Amino acid sequence: MHATMMDYPLTLVPLLERAGKLFPDTEIVSRRPDKSLHRYRTADFCRRARALAAALQRAGLAKGEAVATLMWNNSAHLEAYFGVPCAGGVVLTLNLRLPPADLTYIVNHAKPRFLIIDDVLLPLYEQFKKDVALDRVFVVRWNKGSLADGLSDYDSFIEPGSDGFVYPALAEGDAAGMCYTSGTTGKPKGVVYSHRALVLHSLAISLPDVHAFSHRECVMPVVPMFHANAWGHPFACVMLGAKQVFPGPHLDAESLLDLCANEGVTLTAGVPTVWLAVVQALDANPTRWRLKPGMRVLTGGSAAPEGLLRGLERHGLKAMHGWGMTEMAPVGALYSRKLKLDALDTDARYRHLTRQGLPLPLVEMRVVNDAGEAPWDGESMGELQVRGPFIAGRYHNAPEAADRWTGDGWFKTGDVVTIDADGYMKLADRTKDLVKSGGEWISSVELENALMSHPAVAEAAVIAIQHPKWQERPLAAVVLKKDAQATAESLRAHLAERFAKWWLPDAIVFIDAIPRTSTGKFQKAVLRERFKDWQWDKAV
After folding, report:
1. Which residue is catalytic, options 292, 383, 441, 481?
2. What is the pLDDT of residue 184?
3. Could you give the CA distance from residue 276 to residue 299 in angstroms, rounded to a whole number?
4. What is the pLDDT of residue 518?
């Protein structure tokens, strides 16, 4: 017997067309660089996305060719998210927080001929333009200033519209998007997403036990559109007709809270460092912002400390915790509490919420260590390996990185985890961040989360430092909250309530700020370099 279903390719075109037909009046809001708001309807977005696709075809875009963007989260970037792939191209999002040398490498590696850029980012482009070969640069002129020679106006480029435009024949396996990893170890590596992967990822994250999107939502992605697809939210929101609110370059806590309150945001997403600042602002001004009751705050990118999760819910927000990677399009797991866990007391519930959650539908996970595949018992630690239809099968033009995939087709994430009998994954560390002391492993993530639960601590990062006797010992770098006080002894006493004595950091240093990567994660490599010559006889 043979299946009798239609052979209907999963591409982004039906998602775009559905939004325009069913939800034409839904608003899309962007905060401009001058902090004023740009508003238009979904019908306007769809018209302009098609106009961009038509303009790119007229400009000679070849099927499968990359079109680069250097943009903040805004409506024009959303137009590129759909206009480029629906024209047969590949939208290549450049991470504006990377150094110019990395941007040069990415452009020369992916070889786009066209770049779409926000005018406020032209100074960054000036730092690497002489080292790349681009045919045309289209500038989104938020400030309406004059353009230098060699630059084209984006609005003028798409102004002819899409009369006579016909979508090219697209297969679901065709490339649609491309992101590069942050390059924290070696050169950035490119991940090319197919139309099929983006459609399936959009469906998966929209499910009730994941991000629970619907056309009734108002979604503000703080996580950048220039990295890891803004966790897939722009694609899913267009698919379902949800209102979208884009913060542009204004990511400080007060600006974000103003947008949430004024636009009625029901779901927002970003890395933990963003929400730590938001909780501090709410603590300082608890009655200033009238937020939607139960507004969902999704955090990921690094493990969320228990204190952050408690702080969000203390202000009537629903904390959501997840995990993913650029290589996964990018969401791989999301915390959803099973019915059997509803009876947990408050403390146990928050401890459980620090887990990264259950694998999304269509995502398979396994834990592998020196002994082989580890059982799901919550105790057996090893590297997390994943596979599924929206997980990369290789990097773009990077044969030297082929060892990231196993012989039987699993992707090696580099994350050290446990998975319990109920299927909840808990991040222990990155393989490079584990502390190996006297032959035993210490999780820097667990120590950091515990330190940040101390009322005086704003942020904490734990790193491994070479030790003459124990191979490595943990050193904690701590940032205190404004006007707060704590000593190394008081922080060790706080940790001693949860951990064995040999886990406790032998040194605790107080610093003004913890360096961050381009995606807002703690940049531990910088700390390791700073403290590499630490003398243990001066431990405090």
Report:
1. 441
2. 53
3. 10
4. 66
Would residue 327 show up in a list of annotated catalytic residues for this protein? Answer: yes
Which of these is catalytic: 21, 35, 338, 436?
Answer: 436
Which string of DSSP letters, residue by residue, matches 110-146?
Answer: H--SEEEEEGGGHHHHHTTGGGS--SEEEEE-SS---
- Sequence-ordered strand ranges (E) for 124-214: 136-140, 152-153, 175-180, 190-194
Least Cα distance to 396 among 198, 189, 185, 197 occurs for 189
Amino acid identity of 449? N
**Beta bridge mates, 221:** 269
Please give the pLDDT value at position 482.
87
Of the candidates 277, 376, 407, 386, the residue with the CA atom closest to the CA atom of residue 331:
386
Question: pTM of this prediction?
Answer: 0.86
Tokens read off for 305: 């400390």
* Residue 441 known to be catalytic: yes
Helix/strand/coil for 493: helix
CA–centroid distance for 384 within its chain: 18
In the β-sheet with 382-387, what is the strand arrangement from edge to edge? 372-374, 364-369, 382-387, 411-419, 425-430
Per residue in 111-124, pLDDT (tens digit) is: 999 999 999 999 99
3-state secondary structure of 353: helix
Residue 93 annotated among the catalytic residues of the structure: no
Residues of the chain with pLDDT under 50: none
Place of tokens 């696709």: 53
Whether 181 is a known active-site residue: answer yes
Catalytic residue, chosen from 26, 69, 181, 418, is 181
What is the predicted pLDDT for the residue at 96?
Answer: 93
- Please tell me the distance from the alpha carbon of residue 375 to that of residue 228, in angstroms, as a whole number: 30
pLDDT tens digit sequence for 436-495: 776 667 888 889 888 998 999 999 999 988 887 787 899 999 999 988 999 999 999 999
Per annotation, catalytic residue among 327, 446, 448, 459: 327
DSSP state of 405: B
